[in-house]
Amino acid sequence: MSDCREGCFFLTGKDFTNAGAASSRLKGMLEAMNISGRVIRRAAIAAFEAEMNLIIYAVAGMMKYYITPEKIRIVLEDMGPGIENIELAMTEGYSTAPDYIREMGFGSGMGLPNIKKNTDELNISSVVGEGTTLEFIIYLNK
Amino acid sequence: MKLKELADSLSLDIKTPGVDLDREVTGGYVSDLLSDVIANARDGFLWITLQVHLNIVAVASLKGLSGIVLVNNRDPDEETLKRAVQENIPILASTLPTFELVGRLYSLGLRCR
Description:
The complex is a heterodimer.
Chain A lengths: L4 E8 L8 H12 L4 H21 L2 E8 L3 E9 L6 H4 L9 H5 L7 H7 L3 E7 L3 E9 L3
Antiparallel strand pairs in A: 1-2, 2-3, 3-5, 4-5
Helix pairs in contact in A: 1-2, 2-5
Chain B lengths: L2 H7 L3 E2 L12 E4 L3 H7 L4 E5 L5 H9 L3 E4 L7 H9 L4 E3 L4 H10 L6
């Protein structure tokens, strides 16, 4: 695998019809690039959780990806409510999701911890009332 | 174990006509929380759930699951079935409640590992 790739998916809040499509396409892309199964599994989990978070909470946003022979870097930027307390949001089981989201089996407070577990670096910055930027990196040879 | 054999043994109702059931089931996972399945189910696992909405197909597809079994006669949304056929994910349904169904799958040799 020697080529680099970058691009962007646009995501619409509450669009559950297409939820998961960006992560699926990203996964397909990684498979086509012959990246190891273990790295692809980790990236797919993290990307799906991040994509779902954006769709559940934000109005709109995008998922940008940068793939190099060394690492996969994914950045999600959204226009959304922001996260008031990032430390609390990282706590397993903590969620601010409304009931109808929970009834769908989302909002179990596992999303951000799942992202953390499956990535090598995770950075979240957020402004309440404006939006959130979530960035994660997975190294290919780690 | 093949999905086709499991479907026959447990009289599962096949909801996705045309989707091939001749695929290996490597294990099973039960959860109605999508993040739990995303984190813990593995390639080739059969997923037992009561969730019937569209996003179960995305989860199964992303995780490379061998299929989804709905419990308690749950009826999947029309959109869910359409998407499942598109994505080649078998959806089956059982009249049994989760406890009973999983007990039978276990006794047929299915494990979560």
